[in-house]
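Recall that a protein's primary structure is simply its ordered list of amino acids. Everything else, from secondary elements to tertiary packing, is in principle encoded there. The following example makes that idea concrete.
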Amino acid sequence: MRVVQFSDRENKIIMLALSPDNTINRRYFKETFPGALSIRYKFDNSDRYIIPFNADGNYSWDWDSNVIYEVPSSINPILGSGSNT
């Protein structure tokens, strides 16, 4: 199982499991980060990029296990909640 790392507004690192199709289920994400507006990442010293949704409304990206993705404007995460299926 592959996981992706996220940093919430308190700079806590939270790991979420990727679905078999290499996406993060939007409901699973929202249950973990209530109030989150998006997922962002910063590549090197460039601008921040927002991770897009796929046709099913889930977050779809070429996830990098060495990157810590940002969750802007989120309320405290609920650890261990939800399922990614």
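The beta strands are 3-7, 13-17, 23-24, 40-42, 48-50, 59-60, 68-70. The longest strand covers residues 3-7.
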